[in-house]
Design a protein that fits this description.
Chain A is an alpha+beta fold. Chain A has 20 helices and 28 strands. Chain B has three domains: about 5-50, 2-Layer Sandwich (Uridine Diphospho-n-acetylenolpyruvylglucosamine Reductase, domain 2); about 55-165, Uridine Diphospho-n-acetylenolpyruvylglucosamine Reductase, domain 3; about 170-265, CO dehydrogenase flavoprotein, C-terminal domain (Enolase-like, domain 1). The chains are: A alpha+beta, B alpha+beta.
């Protein structure tokens, strides 16, 4: 049976894009070299908080090879970088939105803040010249910890945000929650920190900006996850340029994880400067710059309380979170610890009432924004750690306490705004327990004990919300952008197809997955389908890739366009076959008159559309090219259970992951191999957060102490085991693909699974508290304090 | 990187002359120096590359000693049958340095001349009571390493080889920093030909040092338990975000015990 007949859905088709990557033929932004190109270097603040009394660029401007040096004084008419989500404070006022200047104006507010832009013939000349810039700093006291920032007397970072508070926001019925706690048989309390992370895409951020005098237009190549949004924000909000005069191309991009969603100062300043110097300008971040200036992730401090009845049924959850925004509001910073966090606090459970209050504050650190999972890992971490602790306190087995509280009827309205359309939580838990061999754990634990090692088993039953939507609901919650996706299916005369998608692939394999969908629907070979993305000059529009939305939202837009192609094809076929349109069936790449053997192949129809000699021109336009915009009616809700087994060496504090088992429900799966790869990557990042990664600023000086890979521990292949990954399927009910999204799940479920395993292992030596990362040093210290 | 002059002498004498006349820096494998230059943390006016001097590389047995040329790459030490036969612990140590790329470029001489507080080689040199040979003299291990990144080397002095007296037993146990994988604590334990025991520690302090209490305990009983039972004083040890002084002190005993176990 050929692939076309069976369709490509559910097949592990090898990735179409891999040939060019493996051959070194990928085109990343730093591979773009334009004639007459110049190089940019950004002088960054060495201080966490300092008044800028003056900047003398005189010597730098005269340095060899220098073309221009710009500071904020030059950026007349250029606005600050915008924030895309308005959060309203509990007191009814809008969040505090201090200006976010493209180049620091009057003050530098974090180490790495952009102070000046140097443009020179070579990168080295630009760097040399930057050393000649004399900035007169008056160093001010800095605050980097979000709890400290809210204390009275803390250094004041923005005049517009008294006490450094950005907002206090809340969700849920507080009085109902308080009442439930009053009746609880048991209350579990937990104080946890969700550690700050530095995203580390293999490809650092990069940009090439060029201006054309011929038509007063700009082209920006940029390592970015959503080029249309980048263009919209940059032109309409910051530079005041006509949108149609700016083309943004995000070519091959080497990983994003959220950090390349945002509009950054670098590319904005470069587009502005490209007209002034009238030459192309290139910049690629060095790893040290990435550490300083990419938007960071997480950084929550949380107190949570879970009320339970005597049988371990959850009665209420009460959460207070303080979230670090960094020095300025990054593009989507404000919605991460609110809309994408607190709404997930019901988890997989029937907890009838939930209340969460979030205070967000500014600090002298790099801006914080979405990072793989964006709010949902933080929520899952709170829920699954406190459920673990409640089970341990009440003596209820970890699977049992979860089962007693699982949601089993759908659709399910949570007390925190979300409507889960479908799910099957028992199935994932059962399967995860099977592949984790939970039954054999007791024997393995006692064997480990004989060797002086501590074994632990940790569960995390997570849920996330993907495919963020619908636009009108998001708008009512403060979103300043739409959340639809656009797609175009261009059928060429000979029947091959180019698909244009507003989604962006930076490692996810869209060129393959989307082609599988299109080839299956049209019944054509997958080689006949190419997917184009990442170029505002070629793709009609797009909201880009984040929040595991590409297949559920972007894929659906393509399906809607395909529906239009097939509908038009039926009209053409009806004409050619002299049959009624209603009698035409489309299957396996053929338009057939129902009940007969009379048919036309897809290629014959496309040819007729473009060579319309025998064609109903009076009723139908020629051509076969359809577009669709799709705005989802609800989020999708991937969910699953992850089980981690660890062994702790009490002599050194080293945690070894013995096994990691994940059973996920992503809805229908198009390409199991790609999905498995996404899960593996997510698990590695989640394990990185739980065991290794920790971004630390010095509390006095505000210097970034973990500013390189020498001090910031990324997971390596030998830090993780060979994963055991399975899936269960409950198709999403409201998109035609039944797909939910799989990009972030691994990073969401794994941190609590791992930490719960560590807590389980350490319970025998009396450890009751441990924050991520469970590094050898911290684990050893926890053991020592428990023994003391 | 700042601009610099580059010289590639063919003889030791020419290299010494070049260093003396330019005030430049010798370049061995470049795995620390070039990285520092890329970050603009080092600004040598001239680099005198030692790779063209063939007499500086090579591994040979000389009587009761194993002599390793200064420009011998870590990978060559790790894969050397001569090293594995004479002092297998050195092959294990070399195989655990950095990553494959670093091991293919980095050299023994470069490592000890740099004297990074967390480098592996200084522990082996001190524990084996090796002798550092330069173009001017022979320096005992105990006199060679001074403080952090400091050695007894003069400005135009070039290490030519290190001579390791072959011990009865030796092993190196490293506890890696989770980020850099340099030694957070590395302990090289050697029972020398005369029966004396040396335990040299890297990573734990500003420079390599001998852990006297461990040596005393192991002189009495060369067993893992004897090492592990020693309570090492945390005073003077490094205290940073990767590990407190107390943790490092504890790890000195643990890793010493593991080294003894590996030494057999």
């Amino acid at each position: 049976m050929g692939a076309i007949e069976s369709g490509f859905i559910g097949q592990s088709v090898r990735r179409k894009e891999d040939a060019r990557f493996l051959l070194g033929a990928g085109q990343y932004t730093d591979d773009v070299t334009l004639p007459n190109q110049t190089h940019a270097y950004f002088l960054r603040s060495p201080h966490a908080h300092a008044k800028i009394r003056g900047i003398d660029t005189g010597k730098a401007k005269k340095a060899p090879g220098v073309i221009a040096v710009y500071t904020s004084a030059d950026l007349e008419g250029v606005n600050g970088l915008p924030c895309g989500w308005l959060i309203t404070d509990v007191d009814g006022t809008p969040m505090k939105e201090p200006p976010h200047p493209v180049l620091a104006k009057g003050k530098a507010r974090y180490v790495g803040d952009h102070v000046a832009l140097v443009i020179a013939e070579t990168q080295n000349q630009a760097k040399d010249a930057a050393e000649l810039i004399d900035v007169d700093y008056e160093v001010l006291p800095a605050v980097v910890n979000v709890v400290d920032a809210l204390k009275p007397g803390a250094p004041q970072i923005h005049d517009e945000a008294p006490g450094n508070k950005c907002y206090t926001w809340a969700i849920g019925d507080k009085s109902a929650v308080d009442a439930a706690f009053a009746k609880a048989a048991h209350v579990t309390k937990l104080d946890i920190v969700n550690n700050r992370l530095v995203p580390n895409a293999i490809e650092p951020r990069a940009a090439v900006a060029t201006y054309s005098r011929a038509d007063d237009s700009y082209t920006l190549y940029v390592a970015n996850q959503n080029p249309h949004v980048e263009r919209l924000l940059m032109t309409a909000f910051v530079l005041g340029l006509p949108e149609h005069k700016v083309r943004v191309i995000a070519p091959d991009v080497g990983g994003g994880f959220g950090s390349k969603i945002y509009l950054y100062a670098e590319e904005t300043a470069m587009v502005w400067a490209s007209k002034r110097v009238n030459r192309p300008i290139k910049w690629a971040a060095e790893r040290s710059e990435s550490f300083l200036s990419d938007a960071h992730g997480r950084d929550h401090v949380t107190h949570a309380e879970l009320a339970l009845d005597k049988d371990g049924k959850f009665l209420a959850l009460r959460v207070h979170t303080t979230a670090n925004m960094g020095a300025y509001l990054s593009t989507f910073a404000s919605c991460i610890p609110t809309i994408l966090y607190a709404t997930l606090l019901a988890g997989q459970y029937t907890t009838p009432v939930v209340y969460c209050e979030v205070t967000a504050a500014f600090t002298n650190t790099a801006p914080v924004d979405a990072y793989r999972g964006a709010g949902r890992p933080e929520a899952t971490y709170v829920i699954e750690r406190i459920v673990h602790q409640a089970g341990a306190e009440m003596g209820i087995p970890q699977d049992e306490i979860r089962r007693r509280n699982f949601i089993r009827t759908f659709p399910y309205q949570t007390p925190v705004a979300l409507l889960y359309d479908t799910g099957g939580y028992d199935a994932c838990l059962d399967e995860a327990m099977r592949i984790a061999d939970v039954k054999g754990f007791a024997a393995r634990k006692s064997d480990a004990a004989k060797r002086g090692k501590l074994r632990g088993l940790g569960y995390a039953a997570y849920i996330e919300a993907c495919g963020i939507a619908p636009s009108n609901v998001a708008g009512s919650l403060g979103a300043r952008a739409g959340l639809f996706e656009a797609g175009e299916v261009r059928v060429h005369p000979t029947g091959s197809v180019t698909v244009f998608t507003g989604s962006h692939s930076h490692g996810q394999g869209h060129e393959t997955t989307f082609a599988q969908v299109v080839a299956t629907r049209l019944g054509i070979p997958i080689e006949n389908v190419d997917v184009v993305h990442g170029d505002t000059g070629r793709v009609l529009f797009g909201m880009g890739t984040y929040g595991s939305r590409s297949l559920a939202v972007g894929g659906t837009a393509i399906v809607k366009a395909l529906d239009k192609v097939i509908a038009k094809g039926k009209k053409i076929a009806a004409h050619l076959l002299e049959a009624a349109e209603s009698d035409i069936e489309f299957k396996d790449g053929k338009f057939t008159v129902a009940g007969t053997d009379r048919s036309k192949a897809f290629g014959e129809i496309s040819l007729a559309a473009y060579v319309p000699h025998n064609y109903p021109l009076d009723k139908l336009e020629p051509g076969l090219n359809e577009t669709a915009f799709y705005d989802p009616t609800n989020f999708t809700f991937p969910a699953g259970t992850h089980i981690c087994e660890v062994e702790v060496d009490p002599d050194t504090g080293v945690v070894s992951i013995v096994s990691f088992s994940a059973c996920d429900d992503f809805g229908n799966i198009i390409n199991p191999m790609i999905v498995e790869g996404q899960v593996h990557g997510g698990l590695c990042q989640g394990i990185g957060q739980a065991m290794l990664e920790h971004c630390i600023y010095d509390s006095e000086s505000g210097q970034l102490l973990t500013g390189s890979l020498m001090d910031y521990a990324l997971p390596r292949a030998d830090d993780v085991p060979s994963f055991k990954v399975e899936t269960k399927v409950t198709p999403c009910t409201h998109n035609p693909l039944g797909a939910k999204g799989c990009g972030e799940a691994g990073a969401i479920g794994s941190p609590p699974a791992l930490m719960n395993a560590v807590m389980d292992a350490l319970s025998s030596v009396g450890v009751t508290h441990l924050d991520m990362p469970a590094s050898p040093h911290r684990v050893w210290q926890a053991i020592q304090s428990a023994r003391a | 990187m700042y601009t610099f002059e580059y010289q590639l002498p063919k003889t030791l004498a020419d290299a010494a002359k070049a260093l003396a006349s330019t005030g430049g820096k010798p370049l061995a494998g470049g795995q620390s120096l070039v990285a520092a230059m890329k970050l603009r943390l080092a600004q040598p006016g001239t680099l005198v590359d030692l790779r063209g001097i063939s007499e500086l590389a090579g591994i040979r047995k000389e009587g009761d000693a194993l002599v390793i040329g200064a420009m011998t790459r870590h990978a060559d030490v790790a894969n050397s049958a001569v090293v594995k036969g004479a002092i297998p612990a050195l092959a294990v140590l070399a195989d655990g340095i950095g990553d494959r790329q670093v091991r293919n470029m980095g050299t023994l001489g470069g490592s000890i001349a740099n004297n990074d507080p967390a480098a592996d080689w200084p522990a082996a040199v001190v524990a084996c009571n090796a002798t550092v040979q330069t173009n001017k003299r022979k320096i005992a291990a105990g006199d060679f390493f001074k403080g952090m990144y400091e050695t007894a080397l003069g400005a135009d002095e070039i290490i030519t080889a290190v001579s390791f007296p072959i011990p009865k037993k030796a092993a190196y146990a490293k506890f890696p920093n989770p980020a850099s994988r340099f030694a957070l604590v590395g302990v090289f334990v050697a029972q020398l030909a005369d029966g004396s025991v040396r335990a040299a520690v890297t990573g734990a302090a500003p420079a390599v040092f001998r852990a006297a209490p461990i040596e005393t305990a192991l002189a009495k009983s060369f067993t893992p338990d004897a090492a592990k039972a020693v309570k090492v004083d945390a005073k003077g040890l490094n205290n940073d975000l990767h590990g407190s002084a107390a943790y490092r002190a504890h790890l000195v005993s643990v890793m010493a015990g593991r080294a003894v176990a590996a030494a057999g």
